Amino acid sequence: MSSTSFKDRNLLAVIGDEDSITGLLLAGIGHVNEHQRKNFLVVDAKTQVSTIEAAFQDFTERRDIAILLINQHIAEKIRPTVDKYQQAFPALLEIPAKDFPYDPEKDSVLKRVQKMFGE
C-alpha cells in the first residue's frame, strides 16, 4: 500500500450500543458524507445480525476510515467475520461497553498477536 492511500484515511467508524455511540459522537467523531453515509451504527436488541455484518463490511471497505471501533459484545454476534478480518487498515479495535466489560480472551486482535508470539 502506498503512502498516498493512507493520507485519505482520517475517520473513525464505530459499531456500538447507544451509550458508546453517544459518547463518541459527543467527542466529535460523527461524520455524514455527501452521499448521506454515516461512520457509525447504533446497535440495539432489534438490530439484525445481517445489518451489523453489512456495516462491518462497509466500514472495512471504505477508504476514508482509519480505525473501526466495535463493542466487544457486538463483535461476538459476528465473531467469524471479525476473526477473518486481517487488514491493517482500517485498524479494528474491540472496546468495552457500559454493561459489558472487556474480555481479552475474546479479542480477535489479541488472539492473533498471542499466536504470532507463540503464547
Task: Please give a quick description of this structure.
Helices cover 38% and strands 18% of the residues.
List keywords for this structure.
119 residues; alpha/beta; Rossmann fold; four-stranded parallel β-sheet; globular; membrane
What does this structure look like?
- GO terms for molecular function: proton-transporting ATPase activity, rotational mechanism.
- InterPro entries: ATPase_V1-cplx_f_g_su, ATPase_V1-cplx_fsu_euk, ATPase_V1_fsu_sf.
- It is found in: Vacuole membrane.
- The structure is a single chain.
- The protein has a four-stranded parallel beta sheet with strand order 2-1-3-4, with helices on both faces.
- The chain starts with a helix and ends with a helix.
- Strand 1 (11-16), helix 2 (18-26) and strand 2 (40-42) form a beta-alpha-beta unit.
- With 119 residues, the chain is of the alpha/beta class.
- The chain has helices at 3-6, 18-26, 49-61, 72-75, 79-84, 108-116, and strands at residues 11-16, 40-42, 65-71, 91-95.
- It is built from six helices and four strands, in the order αβαβαβααβα.
- The chain has a single domain, classed as 3-Layer(aba) Sandwich (Rossmann fold).
- The mean pLDDT is 91.
- Helices cover 38% and strands 18% of the residues.
- The radius of gyration is 14 Å and the shape is globular.
